[in-house]
Amino acid sequence: MEERRRVGAYGVVGDPSGRVLLVRGSARADFPGVWSLPGGGLEHAEHPAHAVVREVAEETGLTVEVTGLRSVVADVVPYADLRVALHTDRLVFDVIATAGTLRDEGDGTTDLARWLRPAEAGELPLLPFTAEALGLPVTPLPPGALRRREPFATPPADRRLRFGAYGLVTDPSGRVLLTMIAEGYPGAGRWHLPGGGTDHGEQPVAALLRELVEESGQLGRVVDLIGVDNLHNPAALGPEGRPLDWHGVRVVYRVAVDLPTEPEVTELAGGSTARAGWFTPEQLADLRLTEIAARVVDGRPLGYRP
User: Fold this and answer.
1) What are 124-143's pLDDT values in tens digits?
2) What predicted TM-score, i.e. pTM, was given to this entire model?
């Protein structure tokens, strides 16, 4: 099967009575009749927080404001008839409704938008990520729920979408672990957060812990989710040897290494990491950091607002 990637942004919208807002897949959807959180795929270069605001408005008529990032998960759906395995990275935001009147989408991939109590939602066919986000049992979808027959569009040759997981990694003494970007990669020579792109079928937390071992030889544990960063470089020059229009979505976690060792790059030759090191807070001021590393180690928010 051909492996494809997609990134989507979704919103958990509640009301004072404890109900949650859900939408139902229309006849045009991949899963007609199945309910999910409102949301959908990112447009090229679009920040996930912008995408969830746009998608909720399109599907429900409500204007929402993002208040935080609840979770990040991934799933793979095999489209056997199309010989495509679609990996979707899903960012689930907490949002609040600030304006608008609830309505159904007129001519899109959803046909109903409803406020439902958790018990009511639990009686409906739900996409697995939706059930998980709401703390409901994840149950198999009805047979034949996946009905997409239209082929997937061919991705533009000059564009790339990359989803990555990175960490603010610390040890018990408060040192911060950073990795230096190797020659031939954007940002070469700067110190960066440990982490990297997720593989097809890989969950972001698993990817981060794998990258941590490859880039530094450290064993870590994820403590919490910090936020999401959006990167658009319309002419990035990397190992491909020609400029490409890159869109990167990077989720950042807080990671603890309880038994730190001397950092050692263990990934295969040709990787993007030249070396790794532990640094005290005082030493960080003298380092050339990437933009995202500087923000995260300074404790500045990554930001969610459009």
Assistant:
1) 999 999 999 999 999 999 88
2) 0.94
Q: Is 82 helix (H, G, I), strand (E, B) or coil?
A: helix
d(CA 171, CA 221): 11
Helices (H) and strands (E) in the chain, counts: 6, 14
Distance CA 73, CA 220 (A): 19
* Alpha-carbon torsion angle 141, 144, 146, 150, nearest 10: 180
Residue type at 72?
V
| Residue type at 58 in one-letter notation | E
Contacts of 30 (CB under 8 A, 6+ apart): 77, 109, 146, 147, 148
- Evaluate whether 228 touches 91 at the Cβ level (below 8 Å): yes
Q: Which two tokens stand for residue 252?
A: 């950042």
- Nearest-angstrom CA–CA distance, 72 and 247: 18
For the stretch 62-112, pLDDT in tens is 999 999 999 999 999 999 999 999 999 999 999 999 999 999 998 899 999
Q: What's the token pair of residue 285?
A: 């001021």
- Residues 264 and 215: their CA atoms lie apart, in Å, by 7
CA gap 52, 66 in Å, rounded = 8
Element of type H or E holding 23: strand 20-25
Q: Give the rounded distance of the alpha carbon of 233 from its chain centre.
A: 18
Place of tokens 């533009």: 156
- Beta strand pairing status for 84-100 and 2-13? parallel
Q: Region of 144 please: left (phi>0), alpha (psi -120 to 50) or beta.
A: left
